[in-house]
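Same chain as my last thread, 120 residues:
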Amino acid sequence: MKAAFPKTGPVSWWIILFSKSNEAGGTAQRFELYIGGLELANGFSELTDPLEQAKRFEEENKKRVSMGKAPFRVSKAFMNALPKIPPTGGVAVGLDRVLMLFLSKKDIKEVQVVHFDNLI
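reply #2:
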């Protein structure tokens, strides 16, 4: 099995908090680790621009309201902290995905203790 690392893609692919690395091209600073076609991890740089973050929160809340959902409350403490955060990033590794790889499972439900579709 080979590992694959897609590194960039349209910003619309990525969650609201990821930063943009190329404003003109609309890409996000991020990567994913795939082994055998299974996503094991993803990494990204954090968005620390308070103006851009406020714009994205506003857009997301407009979408939520248009779907009949309540808007999310935006934390003033979070927004005030953003300009003080140095360039930073993170990597998330899914333990359930690692278990799938090591146990040769094709369905994530085979390694999950809680089946999330039963909670909804």
